[in-house]
Design goal:
CATH superfamily of the largest domain: YVTN repeat-like/Quinoprotein amine dehydrogenase
Strand content: over 45%
Number of helices: 0
CATH architecture of the largest domain: 7 Propeller
CATH topology of the largest domain: Methylamine Dehydrogenase, Chain H
Distance between the termini: 20 Å
Radius of gyration: 27 Å
Structural class: mainly beta
CATH class of the largest domain: Mainly Beta
Shape: elongated
C-alpha cells in the first residue's frame, strides 16, 4: 500500500549537525547559509528564515562544499563499512540533483571545488584512504590516488588552490601533501611537505588568496605556515600554548590577521603571524565551522553542541541565531488548542519552541539527569515532566521556574506521564512497571493510588476525556485500561511485543497500539479483543503515534525513520515523509491540523505540512 502513498512535504527543520567539520557554509550570494541535518542539506534564507531542502542521501551527510561562484553544492555521506558512500552534485539555484558520484567506500571525508568549477576533489575516509578528482561538467572521475604515503597517517582535510584549477592540498594525521593534476595523462602527483621536527595532527587548512602560502591548524593548538612552492614550513605560532583542545577552524582576513576557532569553544581574532589574541568570544561547544558572509564584516560559527552564532566583525559579539537539541529527543507535546507553541524534552533539558519562526523560547536545564516524558496541563499553567532519577518536576511554561517536585515518585525512574483534563491529577508510569496516581493541589502533591500489574517499564499513558479512565502501554507486552475512579483494572490487551505507544480513538470505544512487532493493533475497549492488525513498518519498531481529533487519520513513526499518515478506517498509508536520519521517537499532529511534528534520536525536530485530504 505504501507504494501508492504520496510524499509528505517537509515544511521546516529545527536542527543542525554541528559534528560535521566545516559543515556550516555561508553561500557566496550572502543571502543563504547551508548546513547538514541527518541525510539532508538545509539551505536557509538568513532574512526570512525560509528553508529549502536537498534530499537525495540515504545516509547521514558527512561533508558539504559550495563552489566559489555559488552555482554548485556537493555533499558526501557516511555509509556502512565496505559499502559505497555517495557524493551528490547539486545545482544550488534549482535545488536539483545533477549527479551521483560513487567511488568511495565507507565515508566521504572532505570535498573541495577548484576555483573555476572545473573539478571537484573528494577525499575518502579512513577505510577508503583515496583522493579522487572529478570533472564537474562531465560528472565523471578523471583519476584517483591513495591520499597519503604508506607510513604516514590518514588525510582528513582537502582544500583547493585559490588561483589554479590543477592544484590542491590534502592534510591529516602527520601528513601534508600538495598535489598537481596532470590532465593529459589522467594522473595526480603528490609532493610531500616538510614540517621539520614538528609532528602534528592537522585539523584544518586555509589557502592564501595568491597561493603563495597555506596555513594549517593543528590539534596541538598551533598554526603552521607552509610555503606552497618550496613545500616547507616557514613559520608557526603562537609560541605559547594558548588554544587548548586544538585549532579546529581558521579564517584568513585581508588585513593579515586571522580568526581562529578552537575545540574549547573560543573564537579569537589573532594578530599577524604571532597569533596574539586581540579579541575573543566563548561559545557553547567546540567550534566546528567558521564561515564569512561577504568579505568578513559578519561571520557565522557552528559548534558541536549544534548551535549557530552570528558575529559582527567590528563589535566581535556573538548572537545565537539557531539552537537545537544535540542528543535524542524523547517527547513532544502541544498546549491544548494551541498550534504555534510546542515543548520537547531531550537529555537534561526541556525546550519550548515557537513554530512560526521555529525559534527556541525557553530552555529548562536540570544537570546530570534525563527527561523521559512531558505533558502540559490543560489549563496551560504548568509543564509536568518525568525524569530518570525517579522524580516528577513541574515548571511554569512562561519562565521555566520550578513549581513543585515529587521526589521518589518511582524507584526505577519515571518513564511516562499524563495529566487529567481537569488538571487535578497526574498519572505517572515507572521503570519498575507501576502506575501511580497523584492528586495535585495548590501546595501539595499527594499519592492517591499505586496500580501494580505491569512488570516492565511503562512506555505511554493516555487519559480518557471524562477523566474516569486511562490506558497504559508497557514493554512487558501488555496494555491495560484502568478505572481511575475505583482504581481497578478494566481490561488488558496482550501481544507478543514491547508496546511503545497507545492512542484512544476520539470516540473512545477503540484504542490503537504499536511497538516492536511493527504491527498496529486496533482493540475494542469494551472487551479487550483485537479487531484488526496491520503491518506498520517493514523494518524496525513503531515508537510513536497520534490521531486526528476527528479520528479519520493517524500518524506513526519509528525505527524505519519514516513519518506515515494512515486512513483509520482503511488501515492504509496515504502519505509518507522521509527526512529523519535517526529513529523517530515521538510525533504529534498539531491542533488545527496545520502540521505534523516529529522528533528523533539524532536530535532533529521536523515539521511536515499536514496534507489537504479533501
Amino acid at each position: 500500500m505504501a507504494e501508492e502513498a504520496r510524499a509528505l512535504e517537509l515544511r521546516a527543520a529545527i536542527g543542525f549537525n554541528g559534528h560535521v567539520p566545516f559543515g556550516l557554509i555561508c553561500h557566496p550570494n550572502k543571502q543563504h547559509i547551508l548546513y547538514p541535518l541527518g541525510c539532508t542539506v538545509v539551505i536557509q534564507d538568513l532574512d526570512s528564515k525560509k528553508q529549502v531542502f536537498l534530499h537525495g542521501h540515504t545516509n547521514n551527510v558527512s561533508c558539504v562544499a559550495v563552489s566559489r561562484d555559488g552555482v554548485y553544492v556537493a555533499s558526501g555521506e557516511v555509509a556502512f563499512m565496505g559499502f559505497k558512500a555517495d557524493i551528490i552534485l547539486w545545482h544550488f539555484q534549482r535545488t536539483e540533483l545533477l549527479a551521483r558520484l560513487s567511488l568511495h567506500k565507507g565515508r566521504v571525508e572532505g570535498l573541495a571545488f577548484s576555483p573555476n568549477n572545473l573539478y571537484l576533489i573528494s577525499l575518502g575516509g579512513q577505510d577508503d584512504g583515496s583522493v579522487v578528482v572529478w570533472h564537474v561538467d562531465q560528472k565523471e572521475a578523471i583519476c584517483g590516488s591513495p591520499a597519503s604515503a604508506q607510513n604516514s597517517g590518514n588525510a582528513t582535510v582537502v582544500v583547493c588552490s585559490s588561483c589554479r584549477d590543477e592544484m590542491f592540498v590534502t592534510a591529516g594525521n602527520n601528513t601534508v601533501r600538495v598535489w598537481e593534476l596532470d590532465l593529459p595523462n589522467r594522473k595526480i602527483r603528490p609532493a610531500e611537505c616538510r614540517t621539520g621536527h614538528l609532528r602534528r595532527v592537522i585539523t584544518c587548512v586555509k589557502m592564501a588568496d595568491d597561493d603563495s602560502y597555506f596555513y594549517i591548524g593543528t590539534s596541538s593548538g598551533d598554526v603552521l605556515k607552509m610555503n606552497t612552492n618550496h613545500k616547507l614550513m616557514t613559520d608557526f605560532g603562537p609560541q605559547k600554548k594558548m588554544f587548548s583542545l586544538g585549532v579546529t577552524t581558521l579564517v584568513l582576513l585581508k588585513t593579515g590577521n586571522s580568526i581562529v576557532g578552537t575545540g574549547e569553544g573560543i573564537v579569537a581574532l589573532c594578530k599577524g603571524s604571532d597569533y596574539q589574541v586581540m579579541k575573543k568570544i566563548q561559545v557553547q561547544g567546540g567550534v566546528t565551522s567558521l564561515t564569512c558572509r561577504g568579505h568578513g564584516h559578519q561571520f557565522f560559527i557552528g559548534t558541536d553542541k549544534c548551535q549557530i552564532y552570528r558575529v559582527n566583525y567590528t563589535e566581535f559579539k556573538e548572537e545565537l541565531i539557531a539552537a537545537c537539541h544535540n542528543e535524542a529527543v524523547h517527547d513532544i507535546v502541544f498546549p491544548f488548542g494551541i498550534s504555534d507553541l510546542f515543548a520537547t524534552c531531550s537529555g537534561n533539558d526541556i525546550r519550548v519552541w515557537h513554530t512560526p519562526e521555529n525559534r527556541e523560547l525557553l530552555r529548562i536545564v536540570i544537570p546530570n539527569v534525563t527527561c523521559h516524558a512531558i505533558d502540559i496541563m490543560r489549563d496551560g499553567k504548568s509543564i509536568i515532566s518525568a525524569w530518570n532519577d525517579g522524580t516528577i518536576r513541574a515548571f511554569t511554561p512562561e519562565t521555566g521556574q520550578p513549581m513543585y517536585v515529587v521526589d521518589h515518585a518511582h524507584s526505577l525512574g519515571v518513564t511516562a506521564i499524563a495529566a487529567t483534563n481537569d488538571c487535578k491529577w497526574i498519572i505517572s508510569g515507572g521503570g519498575e512497571g507501576q502506575v501511580r496516581v497523584w492528586e495535585i493541589r495548590e501546595m501539595t502533591q499527594k499519592l492517591v493510588e499505586v496500580l501494580k500489574e505491569h512488570v516492565s517499564a511503562v512506555s505511554c499513558i493516555k487519559v480518557k476525556k471524562d477523566n474516569r479512565e486511562c490506558v497504559t502501554a508497557s514493554l512487558d507486552g501488555t496494555c491495560i485500561i484502568w478505572d481511575i475512579v475505583r482504581f481497578v483494572r478494566k481490561q488488558m490487551f496482550l501481544a507478543n511485543t514491547l508496546f511503545k505507544c497507545v492512542c484512544y480513538h476520539p470516540e473512545e470505544y477503540q484504542v490503537i497500539t504499536s511497538g516492536t512487532d511493527r504491527k498496529i493493533g486496533y482493540w475494542e475497549v469494551f472487551d479487550g479483543s483485537v479487531i484488526r492488525e496491520v503491518e506498520g513498518s517493514a523494518s524496525g519498531s513503531v515508537n510513536a503515534m497520534d490521531i486526528t481529533s476527528d479520528g479519520a487519520f493517524f500518524v506513526t513513526g519509528g525505527d524505519d525513520r519514516l513519518v506515515k499518515l494512515w486512513d483509520y478506517k482503511g488501515g492504509a498509508v496515504t502519505h509518507v515523509g522521509a527526512g529523519h536520519s535517526g529513529n523517530i521517537t515521538r510525533l504529534k499532529i498539531c491542533p488545527g491540523k496545520k502540521s505534523i511534528v516529529s522528533v528523533s534520536a539524532d536530535g532533529a525536530i521536523l515539521l511536515w505540512k499536514y496534507p489537504d485530504l479533501h
